[in-house]
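Protein Record: Sequence and Backbone Structure Tokens
======================================================
Scope: a single protein chain, as residues and as a discrete description of its fold.
Tokens: labelled as protein backbone structure tokens, with as many entries as the chain has residues.
Position: the record begins directly beneath this header, with no further notes in between.
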Amino acid sequence: MDDADGVRELLCLLLGTEPDFVVVGAAANGAEAIDEVVRTAPDLVLLDLAMPVLDGLGALPRIRRVAPHATVVIFTGFSEDALLDRVLALGADALLEKGLATGPLVDQLRRLCAARRTG
């Protein structure tokens, strides 16, 4: 879920080309993200922090409540230790930077999903 249409569309295209990922929803803001998670019950939620209506920090605990078994990854342009600690405390499984190349991003998402399933 990302407020920037281009980023959201590229992520959907990228993950849609991977045989082990199926994109089941997308949202432009935190409120829509919660609705999509309720509607689709995904295994993975990729959540931006800076979104209109309801930001990622506000949406994260609600998403965690409605999808306790999903892997929730914060995908952001911000990177600081205090932010990582905060999103982990709110229930995220990881924080990944938007600058990450597509190959490593997909690999990291696979690892996070596998760890959640076996953990």
About this structure: The chain has five helices and three strands.
